[in-house]
Amino acid sequence: MMEHADKYIIDGFRSFDPAITKEYFYGYCRRAYNIYDYKYQLRNKTGLDFYSLAHEYYIHLLKFKFKPLLDKPKEMKLSTWMAKGFHFVVLDALKAYNKEFEHKAEEAADVVLEYVRSTDKEEGMLSYVAEAVAAHYHDRIMHDIAFMIFRVGFKQKEVAAQLGMTPAAVNQRYKKMMEEVVTPFVIENYGSGLYTGTVELCKRMDKETPRGTSCYARMYEELGHSIMAKNQSYMDNKRITPSFISSLKSNEIFVFGSNLQGIHAGGAARMAHTNFGAVMGNGVGIQGQSYAIPTMQGGVETIKPYVDEFLAFASQHPEMHFLVTPIGCGIAGFEPEDIAPLFIAAKNVENISLPEEFWSIIS
């Protein structure tokens, strides 16, 4: 019985059934993500959000035509087998993240330290930083390292020689104090020298915004209010993409959700490849009478740049009429409420049609 149910689900994946994919693929991956998020604290790490990892796993399965699932041992549940596969994706992503994070952390530490040293004559900042480290750690070695680096000006190799430690051991503790104490302390107390005007604007706006609402959300909300006066005209004269498209006029372009690898195997992508000139291996932009917008590389924020690029392209080609399908709302697992706001600016582009469910959200 279980084997029959698993076959039904896998067949649904292989036939690119959106309902089965959403319920079971994303359902099983969500359970696995919650387990590994608890273990590795994924959600606060860039690129390790649920959709980024789930889409990476899906693309992996797609490349191998779902053979990894077909090779599942008969006695094992499909959900358990997929959780194991998802775990490998998580581990690979964590490895890449840790490598990138370590590099960026070192860069950030260098910038902060240089900033502290360059302004110390006026601010006496080095002494305050050393005191902050001493107050945070009940560890004499950390106190000595902070004193030698920030107060005396020693380099890490010199500190290692003075304390009889290896340079690697000093470096490890230095990174720890920079990440946990020094960088937050400097930003909080002397941050004006590190912030751009945009960040300063966000800080001011956040003070005026209810708790839990970010600056960017506030800016987005204000943008929405600024175009409210135009909504009625669009309610009366919407440009709605047909729910089913089997042919195109000579000037019409079929806009579909793709993946960066350009594997146009299911849903609207398959239709684009079969009927409208989409090219295998090309996951972005105009191709034949179709236009690809990647939706399988992460969360909504990773789709926005490609939507913005599309909107600019459409504005520059008024001779074409772009029929946007509900991108991201099939195999990619998003809902119209997630994707539609990305197309707010399309209301001002006369040669773009949108799905009716998008209009109902942004109008």
General description of the model:
- The structure is a single chain.
- The protein is mainly alpha-helical and 363 residues long.
- 61% of the residues lie in helices and 6% in strands.
- The protein is built from 16 helices and five strands.
- It has a five-stranded mixed sheet with strand order 2-3-1-4-5, sandwiched between helices.
- A hairpin with a 2-residue loop joins strand 2 and strand 3.
- Helix 5 packs across helix 9 and helix 8 crosses helix 9.
- It is globular and about 75 Å long.
- About 13% of the residues have low confidence.
What topology, given as strand order, has the largest sheet?
2-3-1-4-5
- Beta content comes to 5-15%
Pairing-aware structural class of the strands and helices?
Answer: mainly alpha
H and E string: HHHHHHHHHHHHEHEEHEHEH
Question: How far apart are the termini?
Answer: 47 Å
Low-confidence stretches: 192-237
Condensed summary:
This protein has 363 residues and is mainly α.
Primary descriptors:
363 residues, 5 strands, five-stranded mixed sheet, mainly alpha, single chain
Protein topology:
Blueprint: H1 2-14, H2 18-40, H3 50-63, H4 67-70, H5 78-123, H6 125-136, H7 140-152, H8 156-163, H9 167-190, H10 197-207, H11 215-226, H12 231-236, E1 252-258, H13 267-275, E2 285-287, E3 290-294, H14 300-316, E4 321-324, H15 336-339, E5 352-353, H16 356-362
Parallel strand pairs: 1-3, 1-4, 4-5
Antiparallel strand pairs: 2-3
Helix pairs in contact: 2-3, 2-5, 3-5, 5-9, 6-7, 6-9, 8-9
